[in-house]
Design brief:
Elements lengths: L1 H4 L2 E3 L2 E2 L2 E2 L3 E3 L10 H8 L11 E5 L2 E5 L8 H11 L8 E3 L20 E3 L1 E4 L2 E4 L3 E6 L2 E6 L3
Parallel strand pairs: 7-8
Antiparallel strand pairs: 1-4, 2-3, 5-6, 9-10, 10-11, 11-12
Length: 149
């Protein structure tokens, strides 16, 4: 396995022109059969910074779940990830879940810098909405399930 991750390089070719060869120092080789497993092993020491928050890792994706009582910890969680790896903020998204049946509205935390706030998020082929409904497209059928906590 060590030899698999050692000595990789990359070169881009476009319209017959080639870039110089650059060494790759990443421990995950995207598209490889061992990529998802190697990410889980590599990311094993990446953890949340605040008690009560959760981190889920699958393949090369990481999800941080922050309950409303810890909303102020969102920035420190992102800082923790950025201390561990180069975070691509433009590829990151935030979703704030709301209970539409709640009598008293709760204000959402302010949006984070350079991280898009969305109302739907696709996780492993399942689209989750900010109102906690999910759907999955199969052929021409759309299935919906609404969570009722």
């Amino acid at each position: 396995m060590v030899n698999l991750f050692r000595g990789h390089s990359h070169r881009t070719e476009y319209h017959g022109q080639q870039s110089t060869v650059q060494m790759i120092n990443a421990s995950i080789i995207q598209g490889s059969a061992v990529g998802p497993a190697s990410y889980v092993v590599t990311a094993a020491d990446l953890n949340v910074t605040t008690l009560g928050n959760e981190m889920c890792k699958f393949a090369d994706d990481t999800y941080i779940i922050v309950p409303a009582c810890n909303a102020e910890s969102r920035v420190s969680e992102i800082d923790g990830i950025e201390a561990w790896v180069v975070l691509k903020r433009k590829k990151s998204q935030e979703i704030v879940f709301r209970d539409s049946r709640r009598k008293r509205p709760i204000s959402s935390p302010p949006p984070m810098a350079d991280i898009e706030r969305v109302v739907t998020l696709k996780i492993l082929g399942v689209t989750i909405t900010s109102t906690l409904s999910i759907s999955h497209l199969r052929g021409h059928q759309v299935m919906h399930r609404h969570n009722t906590p």
